[in-house]
Structure prediction request, 257 residues.
Amino acid sequence: MRGGKVLLGTGIALGLVGLGLLGGRLVDGGSGEPPPAGPGGVTHEAPGAEVDADGRYLVAYGSGGSDLSSTGVPVGFDPDCGSAIAAAASYAVAVITPLVDPTGWDSESYTGMLEELSAGLHATAGAHSTDHLLEVLATAPAVASAVPDTRLYPTDSLFRVRSCVAGTSAGVDLALVTGGTAAGTPFGGVMPVAVDLAWHGEDWRLVTLDPFAQWDTWQTMTTAPGEGWTPPADARGRAAIAAAGGAGWTEFTDAGA
Prediction:
């Protein structure tokens, strides 16, 4: 099925509603490149961004937004890098969830959500990527019936900051823990999602969202907790996922909640 990605291996069946096709710009500034990082990449200079002794950001999933969009997505973030991480996680979960469980969504409501999260950035661009997402949304009911009960486990997921200039731009990777049932067998999986944000209109706005940008990483992280694992991921499982993904992966402070 076009739009379907299924991994069968080590007893884990992972069907994720075509998310392998979701790469691409939601909003295109014309250059085809992600927002530039500042000198030195990640910065910890912005007030409000909490870090531990090793310089890792301390972020709880779902934190930071001062308001909700019309579809219930947290918005109204501060310009610091910790808030950029929180925004990236909330936006990624919001965009992908309807493609895993399309109940209550249609093309109009989904397009409205995308427009709201990228509001004000090149408002006439991004039609091709939006059409692509809508194509996957159209296939979601059929795939959901074949892979029922699939859902995301955000607090068990991890993040990694590729770059951040407070109040300007941020690049954040998410390793979203997923689970469901395939062919009657429960499964667990991990989906790496690359998110790029720009600070615009006094909020972090979604510029790009690219699931499965690193196919090998997805396979490695998915199988890391062991054969036949199912979410929620425990501390050992999250540590295995982080180690399999390489340097820089960090748990949310409410992991396991």
Summary: Confidence is low (pLDDT under 50) at residues 1-25, 27-47, 122-126. Residues 87 and 150 are 23 Å apart (CA to CA).
